[in-house]
């Protein structure tokens, strides 16, 4: 980032290529709205470009980048309150039936795995926003609790609690939904 701030356009390209996929997934998973995710993703990179001349290395670039993304999400959520319901729409996989027909031996196992994955996605979507963000940054991005705390502007202990409660909430949710699905 310092190289980009000094006028090296290639340095920005390297940063962008390194972070574009994970950052975009962060927005999609947080918002469950592809168009909004794309808009905030572009806003993030616009802010990176605008802030280049004043960038200081007080934190890792990745932490700084996700802090910008986090703030954009928070600003959006505040603008569209109430934020008490997050739902996710699951689209069936293309040609799923054809895949299963070719693998009769694993049919039951695959169906169970798909059901569990769908249940888990639904449970992640139902987590409180702060827990969902901490969980996704930890699991998908591999960020430590300390980095997540910097991104979210929370204490380390609060972040650890968010991650712990997210895991517990997911475990309980999946178990409950799995039992409900198998008793119907």
Describe this entry's structure for a reader.
This protein folds into 2 domains: 2-79, RNA polymerase sigma factor, region 2, helix turn helix motif (Rna Polymerase Sigma Factor, Chain: A); 96-183, Orthogonal Bundle (Arc Repressor Mutant, subunit A), CATH 1.10.10.10. It has 184 residues and is an all-alpha fold. It has helices spanning 2-5, 9-31, 34-51, 61-79, 96-101, 107-126, 129-139, 145-152, 156-183. Helix 2 (9-31) crosses helix 4 and helix 7 crosses helix 8 (145-152). It has 9 helices and no strands. The N and C termini lie far apart (55 Å).
Summarize it.
The protein has helices at 2-5, 9-31, 34-51, 61-79, 96-101, 107-126, 129-139, 145-152, 156-183.
Number of strands: 0
Give helix and strand order, one letter per element, not per position: HHHHHHHHH
Average pLDDT level: 80
Q: Provide the CATH superfamily of the largest domain.
A: Winged helix-like DNA-binding domain superfamily/Winged helix DNA-binding domain
Structural class from helices and strands?
mainly alpha
By DSSP (H or I, 4+ residues per run), the number of helices equals 9
Strand proportion: under 5%
Output the keywords.
184 residues, mainly alpha, Rna Polymerase Sigma Factor, Chain: A, Arc Repressor Mutant, subunit A, 2 domains, elongated, transcription regulation, RNA_pol_sigma_r2
């Amino acid at each position: 980032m310092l190289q980009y701030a000094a006028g090296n356009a290639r340095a920005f390209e390297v940063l962008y290529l390194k972070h574009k996929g994970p950052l975009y997934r962060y927005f999609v998973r947080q918002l469950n709205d592809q168009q909004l995710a794309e808009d905030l993703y572009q806003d993030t990179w616009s802010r990176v470009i605008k802030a280049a001349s004043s960038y200081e290395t007080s934190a890792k670039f990745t932490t700084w980048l996700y802090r910008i993304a986090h703030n954009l999400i928070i600003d959006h959520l505040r603008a569209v309150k109430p934020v008490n319901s997050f739902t996710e729409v699951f689209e069936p996989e293309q040609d799923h039936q054809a895949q299963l027909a070719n693998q009769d031996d694993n049919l039951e196992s695959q169906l169970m795995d798909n059901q569990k994955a769908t249940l888990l996605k639904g449970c992640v979507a139902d987590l409180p926003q702060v827990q969902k963000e901490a969980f996704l940054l930890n699991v998908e991005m591999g960020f430590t609790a300390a980095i997540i705390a910097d991104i979210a502007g929370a204490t380390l202990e609060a972040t650890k609690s968010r991650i712990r409660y997210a895991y517990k909430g997911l475990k309980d949710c999946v178990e409950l939904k799995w039992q409900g699905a198998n008793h119907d």
